[in-house]
Amino acid sequence: MLNGTLDTIGRLIEPGRVSRRVYTDPDIFELEMQRLFGRSWLFVGHESQIPNPGDYFTTELGRQPVIMIRHRDNSVRVLLNRCTHRGAKVLNERSGNAPRMSCLYHGWVFDSDGKLIGVPVAEGCSANFDTNDFGLAPVPRIETYRGFVFASLAAKGISFDDHLGGMKANIDDLADRAPDGKLALDAGVHRYMFHGNWKLQVENVLDSYHVPFGHASTVSKDGTQFARREGDERGAKVIEKDRTAADWKIRRSYDMGHGHGWTSNTKLDDDKRSSPVYEAYVNALAAKVGEARANDILKPKFHNSLIYPNVSIMGLNIHVRVIKPIAVDLTEVNVYPIRLVGAPEAINAANIRLLNVTHSAASFVQTDDAESFFRVQKGLQSQLTEWVDISRGLGAEDHDQDTNAPRGKATDELVVRGQYRAWLDYMREAA
Amino acid sequence: MAAVDMDTMTRKPELAFAPGDFELFLHHEARLLDERRFREWMGLFTDDGIYWVPAVPGQESPLNHVSLFYDDRTHMKTRVARLEHPMIHVQTPPSRTVHQIGRAMLEETQNDRGEFLIYSTVIMIEYRQDNQRLFGGHQYHRLRREGSSFRIAHKKVDLVNCDGPFGPIAVPI
Predict the structure, then answer these.
(1) Cβ <8 Å between B90 and A367
(2) Does A362 contact B70 at a Cβ distance shorter than 8 Å?
(3) Cross-chain CB nearest to A216 (options B55, B87, B164)
(4) Under CATH, which number does the domain A167-427 receive?
(5) Cβ–Cβ below 8 Å for A217 and B168
(6) Which of A180-189, A266-275, B49-58 is predicted least confidently?
(7) For chain A, does the N or the C end have fewer beta carbons within 10 angstroms?
(8) Which homologous superfamily does the CATH classification assign to the domain defined by A42-145?
(9) What is the per-residue pLDDT across B108-167, written as a single tens digit (0 to 9) for each?
(10) Cα–Cα distance between B69 and A361 in angstroms, integer?
């Protein structure tokens, strides 16, 4: 059994390999909920999900239910979704409008800033009962960046600025693509589940090694994937002569610290990208920011990025993906299409439609990933084989001047090692 | 959903099809899916045909909200090619399914376009890799008259659990 000391946790991670137990051990999962999800900065949601006072969105941080709600003063609050009386979840729907939140059980009523404003049969309260002590608790820390709301369940720890660091550039890259400089996550959510550990999805978002094999069924005979962006005739060259294509192998990955990372863009026929819908969008963007700036914004820079531990932002077919651990071997993933505010609706509709075929539960891409995670979780039941290998490119990384970050091939495992460095930092220190 | 007018179904003189013909067509479609004859299934759709499975109840548009499926001919071709690909891991082993179609009713006749809107219920049992799942919903087929039969101009399946979390769905419903 695991006792969570530095010594035992430290032994699970070696320079190019990790113990299978980080994926399979329920005790480690419990520790992750306390030490990692219990104190890291976590993505909660986007301000555009709650445009008006009283609008709310409910979600989980780790396993803990929370409410993201807009108060009358227009501020965004993140409150624990747990009645301060006997513990019932107060808001039960995924989203809605509730200027007052009323608990179903004994009717306690809370204001949208969490303040307790109504207790039925008040004469029954104990003599020293003070409503100020019984508001819905706000999460200890909350910060936003360009509408992305993050929270930490710990009062102390690394500042949000230091945590997000260089990953701001990836959020900027997306937000700048909107003519109004703003994004909206208001076009619904794809929800899928897989029987596997949450880290399998986290590791996968920056894994360019698996694509020619894991996603072979999405590649045509000419070695290209189906088109995933409006205006493209075809997707990336993934395979040539039965091997991973040279264009695919030139992708790079960047280890941005704190577990974060990103992969460089997929090489596509950007010179040929063209369609009436795409042109109308380019014109709308250029009208707002000028042609030169628009051209710079539209130059693809990244494929996918991970803001450790629970959110990735994709630059190819744009979306935000939230990873929600449920149990050691069960994970839910929520994929939100991104709407570019100020862009013609046709380009946003095209993005939404393409995301259906890449990342819905019935998509061409995500289904095979979920199958991979499921089979890894099964395979890792092999007790006679302790180690999972993550050594590709170990020691071969160089230093990228622009981002001031270690850089490796995207078909290597540099960023996975970065994730486990961060994982150890959280995990070996008692909360 | 409009109430079904039984008189319309039985008395309309210009209706060249008996109600049973629609039902037979739906059974044929279900059988193609169950027998994994996906290319033939795609062939049932008109060239401008659409296959839609919304992701929320009452979803009004596939253009401003995500869907589980919203396939036009281009996406349908990619989907079918993938289902035929030897390395579709999520179909190794393949799903086995049985569709049960019920309560087929003619909702609406558009004579000018030669189209009929058919409502029915669908239950699909799927078994794969030690796991059996149940899908159930209300479906709406817009069938276009073609010779002595029909093609599907639009098919929408409203799953009762459309907004829930799903494990991977590889085969159309």
Answers:
(1) yes
(2) no
(3) B87
(4) 3.90.380.10
(5) no
(6) A266-275
(7) N
(8) Rieske [2Fe-2S] iron-sulphur domain (2.102.10.10)
(9) 999 899 999 999 999 999 999 999 999 999 999 999 999 889 999 999 999 999 999 999
(10) 9
